[in-house]
Write a structure and sequence with these properties.
With about 220 residues, this protein is α/β, with parallel strands linked by helices. It has one domain: NAD(P)-binding Rossmann-like Domain (Rossmann fold), CATH 3.40.50.720. Pfam families: NAD_binding_10. This is NAD(P)H-binding protein. InterPro entries: NAD(P)-bd_dom (IPR016040), NAD(P)-bd_dom_sf (IPR036291).
């Protein structure tokens, strides 16, 4: 069965890896990208829409697919203005979920983060938690929320704080065993593999912590 997917955030580290996986999968015949800049990947499957992501609701007629993948996110260091941060990390994913529901798309997979909690006193954790809450509130048939820990991999842009954090996490990773596994640094390729896997094998609503992301990805080594 041929499938159409939507990816939001395909220019980012995880979103780009996910895009490459969907291109390589013959079951996907069309991949719609909604973003503010081009991905610079050539494929007959890609249908690219360069838009104002803060006005995503205007794309309702184009927002049709079998599955939606949301890889949108920023960081406190990159987006210091809290209102803008909320517009990105809460506003875009929740708008996408509302469009998914309105257009009767059955599957929505979104990246959140470890520590997400709508009742948290920490602003960034609270925003992620509110995003999760309001996406689940759309009652999309198959909704999967991934909560990765610190994401490894090489970015196009240099982030000093993140680079230092990754260096420390590489040293600590072997110590994270048992219940602490969810704190291990995770590679974006594992997240992308997990997103694609749960979109095609799970028919429920789930919140997937980082250790389970890794387990699901490793069970699909052919990705």
């Amino acid at each position: 069965m041929s499938k159409t997917a939507i990816i939001l955030g395909a220019t980012g580290l995880t979103g780009n890896l996910l895009l490459q996986k969907l291109i390589a999968d013959a079951s996907y015949t069309k991949i719609k990208l909604f973003s503010r800049s081009a991905v610079n990947i050539s494929s007959s499957k890609i249908e690219e829409h360069l838009i104002d992501m803060f006005a995503l609701e205007a794309q309702k007629t184009l927002f049709t697919a079998d599955q939606v993948f949301c890889c949108i996110g920023t960081t406190a260091a990159k987006t210091k203005d809290k209102e803008k941060y909320k517009s990105i990390d809460y506003g875009i994913p929740v708008t996408a979920a509302k469009l998914t529901k309105a257009n009767n798309i059955a599957t929505f997979v979104v990246m959140s983060s470890m520590g997400a909690d709508a009742k948290s006193s920490v602003f960034y954790n609270r925003i992620k938690g509110e995003m999760e809450r309001d996406i689940l509130g759309q009652k999309i048939k198959n909704t999967h929320i991934l909560r990765p820990s610190l994401i490894g991999g090489k970015r196009d842009e240099f982030r000093l704080g993140e680079s230092i954090g990754k260096g420390i996490m590489k040293l600590l990773n072997p110590l994270f065993i048992g219940p602490l596994k969810k704190f291990k640094m995770i590679h974006p390729d594992k997240i992308a593999t997990c997103m694609k896997t749960v979109a095609n094998t799970s028919n429920n609503k789930s919140i997937i912590n980082s250790d389970l992301i890794l387990t699901i990805a490793n069970s699909n080594n052919n990705e």
